[in-house]
## 1
Amino acid sequence: MSTDRLSLIFSALADPTRRAILARLSEGEATVNELAEPFDISLPAVSRHLKVLENAGLISRSRNAQWRSSKLEAEPLREATEWMDKYRRFWDASFIRLDAHLRKIQHDSKDPGAKQ
């Protein structure tokens, strides 16, 4: 996966309105009007958010008669999660080392004769 794609995904996820739209779409397909209901923004603004999500590959849009619905596409979220998982493993290992160090310090402070 190219860095550009990751940049598009993370940029799309950076906005709380777009994250809320994705959360709603995780429950099933929805039209622009349905997606706009909880927000105090215009339909064109919601459509712009949908375009950003679509460009990032996070949603797909289809047309059925006069209705245009949006659907969550989870693959880009998996790709972003895999990228972040490398850093989670790094932090987990760092915390394990820190925990071991703190336990050693605690043990050494209880045993004043311990070699420092």
## 2
Amino acid sequence: MSNILSGVPALSNVNQIIIDGHSFTFEEFSEGKETYIFINGWCSIRYFWTPYISDFSPLGKCIALDVLGHFPSVAGSNFNELSFEDYIKIQAKAIQALAENKKVNLIGHSTGGMFALAIGALYPNLIKKVVSITPAVHGPLIGIIHFAKVMTDLKLDVSLELFFTFIKNFPSLFHKWFEEAAYNGNDFVNREDVKEFILNYHSNFIKLDPYIMGRYLQVLHNADLRPLMIDSNLEALVIGASHDPIVPVEQHREVCSLLKNGKYYEVVPSGHIPTLEKKEETISVILNYLK
């Protein structure tokens, strides 16, 4: 059976693991000596990575793994009590369960990129290399994400539920979500490849839990990666985007400058999703680094 987003055949069905009362689903796409685990960002899903799997499969085993609490995984009853450090610890346990007692490579986007850097720094015996694409580095949150965070603080996170309801009932609004994140948004969402991706992505996106997404905003608002990077020997490639409206590019540059073994590449011009906006360039840089 082919994956709904790109026709990439999976080697196995979707699998599930339980970590500290939280479920994670994952899907394996290829085999090999090296393992590459892909993790998505906030308000995203692991299907985000499907269009790129065929590029990475020749390198080894590729696994798309849920981020804690993101559909189709299910957060445990204590999710609202968890801290950023708890998120990282639980996510690391899920990665360790898939690592088969060897070091793995992590590729993450946005909040997934933030998680990848944190896990790489805190668990050096688990992680070989990290690729972090337009990562969130520290709060406070900005722009529309900050507004959503304030609504959550005021117990108005029903506004997030209304947002998901609108997106569900009016799929055309979903294009606006991507348009706001891109550099040249209108041209971007009207590209044929992007329109197809958005259409297929929508049915999974709307299943995210808005209250879980709201809690993430509260936790990420006060999170800060920088202290973890200063003494770390982590080998990491940080990919920044020159016109990122979600995470200021200065954060991308700064976090890499703190790493002893960090390499930095900036996609110009690009918004928050260089893997889609400048796919050929971005994927080529990542593959060269991992090889």
## 3
Amino acid sequence: MISKLDPSAIQGFLEDTSNLKSGWTPGVFFPENPEEAAGLLRNAASEGRRYTLAGNGTGTTGGRIPFGDYVIAMHRLNRIGEVEPLDNGIARIRAESGVLLQDLQSKAAAAGWFYPPDPTEKTCFIGSTVANNSSGSRSFRYGATRSHVRALKIALPQGDILDIARGEHLADETGRFSLDLPIAGDLSFRRPDYGMPATSKHNAGYWSAPGMDLVDLFVGSEGTLGIILEAELELRPTPEKVFACLVYFMSEEALFAFVEKARSGDAEVSPRAIELFDRRSLEFLRQGYPSIPHGTGGAIYVEQETTDADEERCLEAWTALMAECGAPAELSWAALDADGLAGLREFRHELPVLVNEWLSRQAESKVSTDMAVPDALSRQLYELYRDACEAEGFTYLIFGHIGNAHLHLNILPRNREEYDRAKSLYRKLVSGVLSMGGTLSAEHGIGKLKSEYLVQMYGESGIREMVRIKKALDPYLVLNIGNLIPTSFYETET
């Protein structure tokens, strides 16, 4: 096993995209096979060590940044299997934790298959996408990573290696799981005793549902319950054709009418992605795309899968919907081939790039949200963000996954006073979203940055439920302490 102890060699493991700056570690280990990863955990308690898991540094919540713990880096667990077609029209592929998402998607595509999850950052690790239940624009049709995980290989905190497939370990009628493990022995614990928000995207805290599968407890657990060593993932046939449109609207009223009709469309209007750009986002993008029309109320980006047989009929249905909602067809941007689709997707991904470039010239960091509400309340979420920021006089953008009522608000402070006010507003927005039945995080997770707000979502009793599960699997608290669960709850729980 490779290890690095030289401060200059491990500096890169003290950062991700969260802007946390104060991490430190005595060393980084790079296991090269599952047994080496499990061995580190097996000896952790006796050696007095704790470990933080490190993906590829693309996370936004500080999850991989250590604060005195050793680091287990997943980079050398990067083997990927072959695509295996199954009898039911799908296929499967196995990938170790350190496989890049883009490499898995490329291998699937070369074999004529399609892996639907599409986080913006394609260099994230597969293990990280499982640990964080990652999603993206195509989640409107296909759901988040959880929907595509068939089986997992996990190194548990006491050093056992657990192989679990869907359907093998279900919570019984009392909500209890039972495991017989070589090292940890007999483990029996109940699922968390709380409910899930009624949102179509959710990634905040341990999953819980009657009769749930044990696989789903580990998906989205942010590495606090074990190390994702390998995942068996479900693939679908590659769509015959895909087209995309960027549709401009002269008013927010027309834009939301379009979203409502597109979300509940028929066979011809059946999007796999519905994304929002508010007016301020378009103004920001105009520095790179001067052809963006002035005076619009915002834009919606949609993608739909089609075939040669039905493409024309679907395009006509979308054109009719645009006309019905007053969208000026002459301003819309349609992509009907691979090159056009790549250009529109580049446009969609350019906004966060431009925001980060703008921030690099400022003294303060952005304050951003990752919250979602029940689908029917998507406009209320938009108006909550818009009205609050207008009242404060902030520079801000609203964009993202309107199809799932999941919008990203980016507040761009110009000085420390604005930053402090933006952080105060964020707390108020959390309260507003939770009062609407929403979730604190829809895709980026909690990590270290948002753990204090998780208490507001679940209450102290809910966090204690998470601690109970954590201690059942990690009694010596050796893995990813500080992530997800506020550390103060470990000190008060026995």
